Amino acid sequence: MSKKLIFLILSGPTKEYIDSVRFISNESSGKMGNALAQVALKRECGVIFISGPSSVFPTDVKLIKVTTALEMFKETKSNFKKADIIISAAAVADYCPVKTYKHKIKKNSEGMLIKLKRNLDIIGYCGKNKKNQIVAGFALETENLIGNARLKLENKKLDLIIANGRESFGSDSATMYIINADVVLEIKNKNKKIIAEKIIDETIRIFKNIESGEKIS
To answer: For 6-102+112-211, which CATH class?
Structure first.
């Protein structure tokens, strides 16, 4: 490669606040994103690392901490053109409250109705706006794992997608499927560091193919 590759890696969950103390989120630990960053650094690449609330952060990267999906979208958009390869391992909330209350909502006997709106599609934005870049995403599914992941790959115009189940949340090991247009590679019950090596190497391989004008396969 003629230049040092730059990775933009999104990691961790987002928090979408309902009031000053309550929020919508998920169990993402940030371990997968951290593993990806560590491998990219070992491959002598630069890393821009955007993370939601997490206790796991890599060193020797440009670290950008965010809380909400909107904040993650803005930072991704700001840094998007600087990267050759974008990987979103973040578990971004699909929805956020229409209104966030400044103070804690007091309990009442009638219950509470929360109106939600769709968050912006971060990885979809990257896929549809890439220029000589590789964009990879993750698909956490609880049913029809490969089929739903392939739909996401196509609809969001990604180069690669990694499919996994909810058991990967917070764990050090997982079973994942690395999927491109033609191939499904199963990585069964391996440490996330090993999975990260496969993902990073595959994205670099695809990038080199595009750079040399070869067909992606």
So the answer is: alpha beta
